[in-house]
Amino acid sequence: MSGLARTTIARVSGKGSSPTRTASAAQTSRTELEAYGISILRVVIKSRAADALVTVTDTKGDVVTWSTTDGTTFVLREGVLVQTRGIGSDLMSAAAPWVADLRAEPGIHKRSYFFLGEDDQTNRRDYDCTMSRAGGEIIEVFERQHRTIHLRETCVRAEGKITNDFWLEGSIIRKSRQWTSPGTGYIEFELAVD
Fold first, then answer.
1. Which residues pair with 77 in a beta bridge?
2. What is the model's pTM?
3. What parts of the chain have a pLDDT lower than 50?
4. What are φ and ψ of residue 86, in 5° steps?
5. Domains of the chain, with CATH numbers?
């Protein structure tokens, strides 16, 4: 996967990249991805003009670490983001819901984020979150259609709110848009190859 990763890796952390210099991960075909015979996740960070393909480097139960070739990592538990490393304003950890919590109705839960602030100190944000079902959707991920249920998590606190979106295919989060930290904003994930 090294050749494919090199075309996208610089764009995750912003190392020497510009929006027009590096090929987008979206330009990769499904045939190319499936030829590697491994799980592949697409990661898009619009605030950094980043669009990369990452692979699994560690699994501990339901917690999977996805990494770039330069060591940038995204840790997801059942597809829910709980940690990042190497993107700057990192998500150090998160008290986040499980997929069963996302599917529960009325779906009220708490969420806490611990992230690095501008002073390199860990900051905490606590939210009260509500789940809602946006409906069934057919989405396309690298030339393949998936029948999903779109769930929306709206999280509020006195200083503002965030909204996370999840597209579930059975018990798998096929696609998501998840808030990470003030310095990074939202990250989009697409499970291209399971």
1. 63, 80
2. 0.88
3. 1-3, 5-22
4. 95, 5
5. 2-193 (2.40.360.10)
